[in-house]
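Protein modeling request. Please complete all fields; requests missing the sequence field cannot be processed.
Requester role: graduate student
Desired output: 3D structure, token encoding
Chains: 1
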Amino acid sequence: MIKALFKKQMIEVFSYLFMANKKKTRRTGKALVCALALYGVLFAYLCVMLFFMAKFLCETLVPLGLTWFYFAIMALMSLVMGIIGSVFNTYATLYLAKDNDTLLAMPIPPRYILFARLAGVYVSGLFFELLVMLPATVAWFMYGEPTVLGAIFAVLLPFVLSFFVLSLSCLLGLLVAAVATRIRHKSLVITLLSLGFLGLYFWGYSKLMSSLGDLLTVAGDIAEKVKGPLFLFYHMGRAAEGNGLSMLIFTSIVLGIFLAILFPLSRSFLTLATTNRGAARKAYRRARTAQRSALKALLVRELKHFLASHVYMINCGLGVLMLPIMGIMLLIFKDDVQTMLPLLEALCKNADTVYLLFAAMACMMMSMIYITAPSVSLEGKHIWIVQSLPIEPRKVLYAKLLMHLVIAVPAALVAAVCLLIVISPSLPFLLLIPLAMLLFLLLEALFGLFMNLKFPNLNWTNEAVPVKQSMSVLVSLFGGWAMTVALGALYVPLHGHVSPALYLVLVCAVLLGLCAALFQWIRSKGAEIFATL
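Delivered output (533 residues):
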């Protein structure tokens, strides 16, 4: 029984990779190879980027006898990645899965269902955690001084640490579930709690990372100051050095925390999975409904869906919150940023090149907004309802695009205005930077919808699957980053031959051309695909 449930959960977790979602058939041959290759390239790309940072830290700290501090820093980074990858879908996976009623109606002990659900959360967190710990371990092998026992422990440590990620995810999921079953506006409260937890975690993490500026000179002092608060990670680093007692302490603490959380979780699972006390009572009220155009009605429908799903909002719309925050932070630290501008100008050898750098950073931040990427998949098995309406399929797709823009454009404009106030660019860049940002935002919306039409997933048991575990989401997120890096790298050979202002004009032209091509595809071929899903 456990084996069957575990297999079902793993199929669900990796359905985006092995299943051809249009036909509900398993990918084989070239399709499977291409999917594996794509995810392999993305995984390797991120690992390589993090490897160079790990290499720097390892070469800096290990000779000073601060191996444990090196592993503490990398472990904290992996916790951030692991929690982002799993914490926001824990509540949906454990308590809101659409097949909960079906499974609980069968002669299956609830603890078996809970075990399978936890396995899915564990695997998701482990995958994101390994993005950091894998390059960290490789760097330790190459530039550290591992003993035989230390090498064995270093390989095992990420898998033990993943239980800590699972514990934190379950703790938040349990708290959110306990609150959500007693309130009416679940989505809003869950979103606020999740953002608050993440903000608190990042605040604590930033306090540690802010001390790394003087790492080369005062690394020992910093390590001594944080050794107490980082007791758990101190023993993790000591274990990587080959200390068996530290490995025992680290493993015992992590597993103890996990078991302490698992006990109340198992006791409350059945109650929370079958409770719906927060559901609003429906009462009939006679009222007039304002007449709307088909497109406006579809747009309102999309917005209501977005605002009613905390999983959708947090994962795909986090950039909407981050953009204004980053803009306001720029205003707060305006003097510091303006002090750095001459240094950046000297480094870039051209003041206008600095404006290109800031434009690229803004576009990189906007890549975190990928609302359209899972929008088709989120229709799920009820897609026939909108397909059966007397509405052109392309208008449904237009509504999804408009939802992305209505939500994201105000945040992008706030960030753009703040950025322009701080850097005070010349007149061409005063116009070109906001234009490039808006065109990039439009391209992200079109590209996300394009990818979701190419790789739809209508067969899911909770919304976390299409939102967090679909190829369209992954490609949209990293595709935006890759495009920003590619456009920035393209300027390097052109530096000295093309002015930054002219280059930004060319970038805007390229973005506009890509937007036009994708829009034409969506209104024709994309509409045909949507009608036949």
